[in-house]
Structure formats: C-alpha cells, structure tokens
Amino acid sequence: MKRKITLKQIAKELDVSISTVSKALRNSNEISDDTKEKVQAFARLYSYRPNNIALSLKNRKTKTIGVIIPEIVHYFFSMVIRGIERVALDRHYNVIVGLSNESFDKEVINMETLANGSIDGFILSVSKETLFKQDYHHFNETINQGMPIVMFDRIINEIQCDKVIVDDIEGSKKAVNKLIGNGCTHIALISTKDYVSVGRLRTEGYMNALIEHQLPVNPDLILKVDDKLESEDYLEELEGKVEQLFKENKNLDAVFAVNELYAVTAMKVARKLGLSIPDDVQVIGFTDGVLSRHATPTLTTIKQHGHYLGEQAANLLIDRLENDIEIDEEDEVYQTLVIETELIERESTK
Amino acid sequence: MKRKITLKQIAKELDVSISTVSKALRNSNEISDDTKEKVQAFARLYSYRPNNIALSLKNRKTKTIGVIIPEIVHYFFSMVIRGIERVALDRHYNVIVGLSNESFDKEVINMETLANGSIDGFILSVSKETLFKQDYHHFNETINQGMPIVMFDRIINEIQCDKVIVDDIEGSKKAVNKLIGNGCTHIALISTKDYVSVGRLRTEGYMNALIEHQLPVNPDLILKVDDKLESEDYLEELEGKVEQLFKENKNLDAVFAVNELYAVTAMKVARKLGLSIPDDVQVIGFTDGVLSRHATPTLTTIKQHGHYLGEQAANLLIDRLENDIEIDEEDEVYQTLVIETELIERESTK
DNA sequence: TTGTACGCGTTATCAA
DNA sequence: TTGATAACGCGTACAA
C-alpha cells in the first residue's frame, strides 16, 4: 500500500527542495529542463496529485458547493441536484449534499457545519418547517459572513440573495387555461397549505386563470391538504379528502393538482367513482416526474425543468464566487431567475 | 459584513497569544479562569467556529464521505443516500455526492478529484459502463492508497473491500415463489442484460425458484432488455418488446420484472391486450418505489430497504475509518453485508 | 499561567 | 537555476 505521496516526499527522494518540486510540476521556466524532467517523471510514476485540503487552506477557497434540500427522494429535487452536479463537474467544483428533511433544526445544523470552511457557497431550498416558523437567522448569518447563498424553488423574498424559481403562477395558469380551453368550467384545485410558498403561488395562478376567463372561484372546489410526511395513513387520509371533494361537487369536470401525488390520487379516486378520464374529468398535475409518465392514464403535467434550474443555480453561485471583486458594500445586486414551465400534454386531458 | 473570525484575530484583539486562545476555547486548565472567561465571551460574541479545512489538514482526516452513484433520479439510490446522510449526520461526517451518470469516465474523474484529500473514504455503486468494460483500476488504486471503499448493490466481487448488497437472489425467489404459490405456472421474467450484476442475480433467483418447484425454465418467457438511458424512444421500444412477449406466449400467467419500470410497463401492456390484473396475469416488481405504490393496480414488489442499506454502508465505512489500527498488511478482513428483502403484497397479485 | 515553535501540504516571494 | 521562508488556521509539546 503506497500512501498518497506529497511534495515533501518527492523532494526528499530526489534530493531537491520542496519548492523546486512544486515549480517543476507546474512547469515553471525557473527550473532547468533536466530537473523538470526528473521530477515530473517521478511524480507521474507515483501518480502525485496535489492535496485538495492544503490547496483549500492556502487559497481560502474550497471549490465546493454546499447544497441543502428538504428531501432527496423526490423527482424535482433530484433533478435539480443532477443539474447542479453537471455544472459543478464542468466548472471543477464539488458538491456536498445536506438534507434538511423538512426540519428547521437539521437545516441549521447542516448549514453551520458546512459554513465553517467546508464550502464556498450554498444552493438551497428552504424546509417547510423553516417556512412555517419564519425564522431566517441562519440565512442572514451565513450571508453576513460573506458566504453567498442561492435559493431555489422554496425561497424567502426578504432574504438578500440570488434566487432561481419556477414560474409557478404562470405554470398554473397554463394548466388551468388548458382545462378551460378544453371546455371545463368546474375546475377543482388540490393544493398544500399556504405557508408552502409554491402551493400558495400555484393557487394564485389557478385563481388568476379563472378570473381572467370570468369563471367563478368556488371555494368548495379548492382543497388544501396538510402536507405531512408521506405515510400509509397519510395516503388514505388524502384519498378520503379527495373523494369527499368529488362527492360534494358532482359537477366537477377537471382537477388541477399542485404535485404529482395529488394528481395521481385524483385520478385514482375518479376511477373508483366510475368517472372516466379524460371524458368525465380531466386532470393536470405539477411536476413532470416518473409518476406522471407512467400513471394510467398518463398524466398531463406542468414540467418545471428542474435539471435546467439546477444548472442555472450553480452557474449563478459560481459566477458570484469567481467574480470576487468584493463589492462588499450594501449595493450588492442580486438576481432572481425565473425558469419557464412547459405544459406536457398526455392522456389525462383532451 | 463580519468575515469569519480566526484564532489569530481573537488573539490580536485580546492581546494574548494564539495558543492561549486555542487552549482557552478548549477549556484547558492550563489557562486562568479569567482569561478563559474573557476569550470565551469574545469568541461567543463573534460566534467563532474552528475552520474545518485547517482541522482536516492538521488531523489528516476530513470527516467527509464521498458517495458515487450512477444516477440520483432513482428511488433506490436516493433512499440509499438518505440512509448514508442520516448516519453521517449522527456521526459527524459530511457527504460529498458524485454522479457517474452510468459513465466510466465520469466515475473515474469523480473519484480522482475526491480522492486527493477531499474525503476519507468512498461509498459507491458501480456504473454500468464500468461493469461492462470490466476496468477496475480506479478502485484498486484508491484502495492501494489506503482509502477505504464500501461498495453497495452493484459491486465487483474481485475487489477487496467492504460490500453491502441486497439479497437479490433470495428476493427474486420470494417473488417467484409467491407467484408459484398463487398457482402461476408460466411466469415470464423481464430483466436487463447480464453484465448488470443485479439483473443477473435476479435472473438466477427466478430460475432457482422455478427449478426448486420442478417447473420448466422456458427461454421464450425470458426477456432481457438493453438497459439504455431512459428516453421516449426507449419506452416505446420497451413496450413493443413486452407486447411481443405477451403475444408470443398466450399461456403467460405472471410476470416478474427486475425493476419498477419494467413491471409497470408489463401491467400497461397487459391492460392494453385486454388482460386483467391480477386475474389473468399477476405481476411482481423489484424495488418498492413511488411508481409501485401509485400504479394502477398497485404493484406487489420486493422491497430492498435502501435506506437501511445506506445506513449500514455508512456505518461500515466510518467504523473502518475510526478503527484506524492500521492492519496495513494483506490480512485485512472485509465484510459483505447482505440486506434482506421483503415481499410487499399489493393489488397486482392475488 | 502564558507563549513559542512546529507541522499538516501547498504556493508565492524573495534570496542565493 | 535552485532553495529558504512565510503564510493559510489549527492544536499541541515544550519552554518560559
């Protein structure tokens, strides 16, 4: 077992100084061709690679991005990570992933451990608990320490940082407009409670579309589900509520759901009640994941382009890290990128 | 913007030496209570935290695990990451994630960048291309440098390292036994090409079960699909092949598929051909993911306990890292943990 | 009780 | 053309 070799060891072996080795390896023309040759050959033989940690310490930058997401077993978030990873690899950055698991405490802990020198900046999506508590001190502290943050999807408007969001309002409008265009007039909404920003925005888009088409906004058609962690019980409860929605609104002719699970559940309930999709009820979901593509019937969805979003977020962060011209003052300019959504039409709509 | 504070700055401010500060903060009884008080108060005020990078360099360990997986948008792999993360957080380790995207080159690059000091050890699942090429030099080199590897799921037997695998053979037997128990006699298998180890093992389990029940192994009932990256075309091709399987084997009364997608596809094709599930055809898949739980009908599956697998892998690695008694010689003892599978019965079987 | 010196691995600067 | 030294931030053995 040949341990990792260092400059010092090479220097000792070849009986030259450490700095000579260092320069020779970087092909400095301070060094004679002879020595360069010798050193490089030896280094190659022992496959020398500079130690990242030492470089990080010296350069005061780690070339590592910290990513904190609420949940990884989730189509959208894992697509975002894929996008971040892709750009990071291209631009020679590493990615450390922390999961908040929707918990405020874990989010804080994860951020604190990473902020102590392990990374150069954060890309994160805020946990539900944090959104609920509205306690944002950890974000502010991180930013105050000079560590940039890029928030995506679940963002906090008041925090001064770069943001990348999905065009939730427009996306929802697209969905509802499609349903209206198909002749639906009693369109139900299945959403989350309002403290989840994306649920709120998608609800807004839903209402905007109705209003713009002079259709009434009927509160009875709006179901806001408590978004607990997924469990068997939860699923039954969800189905129960959706079934109730259908039964109390016999004239319901379409459903717009703010995520895949709600949409698939709506289809399941509709089928159970003997309704045919898309003839009796048309359904559109948000997030174009595996569930939508393989549901029966296949689900029309609003695609968020999570992969692209991740790429944009990573570029935003790395750009800021590398333009380290230290504007320093209060007049930092932050961007908010909006990623367009796309309507993917499948069998659940006409 | 108050930049991260260091021992040096505290020392300067309080007009004491760096080591005094260091000791005071670690509550050394070499230091007077007065000084300790003063230093600690100051440190608290400026929320001093030791720099991880400096510690890593000093201790020659990073307390960071490198995880390389082929794909993140994948139920099983993301569950494994969740498990790894959980243990890592508990045991005060960070997790750097690298995606090989099923590519040999990316796997190599990712490992090389991480191995140069960024991490203490690897947890990884081998990419398909690597399995196909059978080029394992990067694993051997890493291990030779004294960096431990834990392989999971897609492993390589010849490599000397700890391993955690799913009990693929037994799991498949469970599935097929269940189908046989339900009276099925013409059980089709939809699997991947053989170079994917798990596909091969699951095929083996399928055959074992048949043989043990004195049922014939009929090659016509075995479909081995080329496992390309998921694309629209690929899906159509898959459906075509599965449909052909059904049509050429009218007596087919059950399908065992080595993943969710194949299983769901089988159900879709069966439905299209007017076959009822589970009355005409029963279906079982491998991997108990979202797709299975929300398919129609819901899918009976073999659950792999990916979360638990991840936890075990992380514990195995960290145990090895921390028992650094340097056995050094050839007589290292490596373990292979086998994670039991579980049959989750749902609507697609009787 | 406090401070000095050293080393972790690297690079940059300056001296030889 | 080469080498010594300092610095990145920390902890610790040893000296004062």
Describe this structure in words.
- The structure is a homodimer of 350-residue chains.
- With 350 residues, chain A is α/β, with parallel strands linked by helices.
- Chain A folds into 3 domains: 7-45, no CATH class; 64-164 and 306-340, 3-Layer(aba) Sandwich (Rossmann fold); 168-303, Rossmann fold, CATH 3.40.50.
- Chain A is built from 14 helices and 12 strands.
- Chain A has helices spanning 7-14, 18-25, 33-45, 52-59, 75-90, 104-115, 128-133, 137-144, 168-181, 197-212, 232-248, 260-272, 290-294, 306-322; strands at residues 64-69, 94-99, 121-124, 149-152, 162-166, 187-192, 222-225, 254-257, 282-286, 300-303, 336-339, 342-344.
- In chain A, strands 2-1-3-4-5-11 form a 6-stranded parallel beta sheet, with helices on both faces.
- Chain A starts with 6 loop residues before the first helix and ends in a 6-residue tail after the last strand.
- Chains A and B meet through α4, α5, β2, α6 and α12 of A and α4, α5, β2, α6 and α12 of B.
- The first copy, chain A, binds a DNA duplex (16 and 16 nucleotides) through α2 and α4.
